[in-house]
Amino acid sequence: MAKTLAITNQKGGVGKTTTGVNLAASLVAVKQRVLLVDLDPQGNATMGSGIDKRTLATTVYQVLLGNADIGTAIIASTSGNYDVLPANRELAGAEVELVDLEDRETRLKNALAKVVDNYDFILVDCPPALNLLTVNGLIAADAVLIPMQCEYYALEGLSDLVQTIKKIREHLNPTLRIEGLLRTMYDPRNTLAQQVSAQLQQHFGEKVYRTVIPRNIRLAEAPSFGVPTLDFDRTSKGAQAYLALAGEMLNRAAQDA
């Protein structure tokens, strides 16, 4: 049965989609079966996986509304060698349409239950907002992976996110936990980044991944080619960092087993 991770942060531009795409490819590189769920109407994880969101007839939107089976919506990413439950702009309408539907918060969880045995990891790329789509992602997940930049406002946003996770745990998903905090776009020459990093480790301890994702031009360039950075430039610091993260996650899982 797959381990389902919601990749989320209410703050935008912290590397959620970059993490989703590159972690998926890195887990595949270490022999894991992976499904990447694009839960963001921008569809960036879909495009970054080499899938043209504009040509899709069936996406996560139809699955959430109950108009399509998840099996018909999943597409293989030829560039990353993982599967994708894609998204496009249609998903923006789901926020309104889900409101009046039965089991609106658990629709993604119910859909993923049909394919959970086909994968080792399911990664859910959540939108940068606390809305019904993100709630669906958090309820479907076993744990939360939080990418964050080491800057002042990130700490403020993190406290809000931790409170949100507590509320979800209390009312909707009692087993939800924080899997780990991932420091992204990290520049060790930046004094503030060092200070925030130290604070994270002080408050969250082992929840902070040892792996740090550096600022890296290859990570920024790869999406425009529709490939994970691992396929774009395997030797780059960004690609190597996500490979290291995949290894660290598997080591953690082995220790917990």
Task: Describe the 3D structure.
The chain is globular. It has one domain: P-loop containing nucleotide triphosphate hydrolases (Rossmann fold, 3-Layer(aba) Sandwich), CATH 3.40.50. The protein has an eight-stranded mixed β-sheet, sandwiched between helices. The chain contains twelve helices and eight strands. Strand 6, helix 8 and strand 7 form a beta-alpha-beta unit. Helix 1 packs across helix 12. With 257 residues, it is an alpha/beta fold. Helix content is 44%, strand content 17%.
Index terms:
12 helices; Rossmann fold; alpha/beta
Layout of secondary structure:
Layout: E1 3-7, H1 16-29, E2 34-38, H2 44-48, H3 60-65, H4 70-73, E3 75-76, E4 83-85, H5 94-98, H6 107-112, E5 121-125, H7 132-140, E6 143-149, H8 152-171, E7 177-186, H9 191-204, E8 208-214, H10 217-221, H11 229-232, H12 237-256
Parallel strand pairs: 1-5, 1-6, 2-4, 2-5, 6-7, 7-8
Antiparallel strand pairs: 3-4
Helix pairs in contact: 1-12
The largest sheet, given as strand count, sense and whether it forms a barrel, is:
8 strands, mixed
Rounded radius of gyration (Å): 17 Å
Count of separate DSSP helical elements: 12
| Helix content class | 40-55%
**How many E strands?**
8
Strand content: 15-25%
Number of self-contained structural domains = 1
Shape descriptor: globular
CATH topology: Rossmann fold
- Helix/strand order: EHEHHHEEHHEHEHEHEHHH
The CATH class: Alpha Beta
